[in-house]
Amino acid sequence: MSVQFYLFGNGFNDGDIFSDEGPGFFSGLGSFFVGAPPLFTFFFSAILLMIISVVLYSIIKGVTTYTRNNAAERLSERARVLTKRTEVSGGSGNSRAYTNYYLTFEFEDGRRTEFEVRAEEYGLLVEGDEGTLTHQGTRYLGFERMGSSLRS
């Protein structure tokens, strides 16, 4: 027993593009594509597939990062706040502006890592602060300031 799957509807290969016949992905679009030029249907399908691909890529990347961070060891290391930066997006016209806050830490061995932090953490820390950074993979968990220096 073979099961046929039609992406564009039952009559796609017969020249009856996007008809309501059969169980196709676009078959519910009905008369929207009836009489449409083939070039239009091709570009519409290509753009739709690109959008779906980008959304799937973003979801897979997010789940992968989340899983990798959960599997990583929770570390507490001596570090110094090296730099602070913000990234503002949106805000044109009547839309809301969003701000992301980042801190770059330098460890005793010279490694540098940037973490996205909450606004409260960003405001409490100053470049040059030294202390213990707690993180799990690329996930920032906290920073406890200390008064002693890292290097002589």
From TrEMBL:
InterPro entries: DUF2500. The keyword Transmembrane applies. It comes from the Bacteria. Pfam families: DUF2500. The chain crosses the membrane at residues 39-60. Keywords: Membrane, Transmembrane, Transmembrane helix. The keyword Transmembrane applies. This is DUF2500 domain-containing protein.
